[in-house]
Design goal:
Length: 150
């Protein structure tokens, strides 16, 4: 089996999670609906949620990102946290991504498990309200999605 270096893994994982979120969200956007997404065939197979943890049902607690919103003078601060270990490059959270209702990437934070002991990231929204999609990507247990609305 060919090996995959870290750069290839990260670029591939970014493309996969972006595509997965697009496939999940697009039907709702076509209908002009921006409400909480409902289940489809990709939930629990390609991307995991609290309601659809699929083959990782025992892993949900440690992989679902928790999203907290704070009002600040600059706008809203979005705090994304995953209660997951950061065991060097053996098992860790690779990144957090935050998407808006149009699937535009608001931001992402790449983690260095040799430096960061907790997967926590902060994003600032200056003038946005609507659905947010937070992704937490584990190097062993794939992509996990939490939805919220600001
Ligand atoms: Fe994991």
């Amino acid at each position: 089996m060919p090996t995959m270096n870290r750069r290839t893994f990260l670029s591939t994982s970014t493309a996969l999670t972006s595509t997965a979120v697009a496939l999940l969200v697009q039907p709702a956007l076509v209908k002009g609906e921006h409400k909480k997404l409902s289940s489809n065939a990709l939930w629990g197979t390609l991307i995991f949620t609290a309601e659809n943890p699929g083959r990782y049902s025992s892993k949900a607690k440690g992989h679902l990102p928790t999203v907290t919103v704070f009002d600040t003078p600059q706008g809203k601060t979005i705090r994304v946290e995953t209660s997951h270990e950061m065991n060097s490059y053996q098992h860790y959270i690779v990144k957090h991504q935050l998407f808006d209702q149009h699937l535009q990437l608001i931001g992402e934070h790449m983690f260095n498990p040799k430096v960061e002991s907790q997967p926590v990231s902060l994003f600032t929204l200056e003038d946005y309200s609507g659905p947010l999609y937070a992704i937490s990507l584990c190097n062993k247990h794939d992509a996990w999605l939490t939805q919220t609305t600001v």
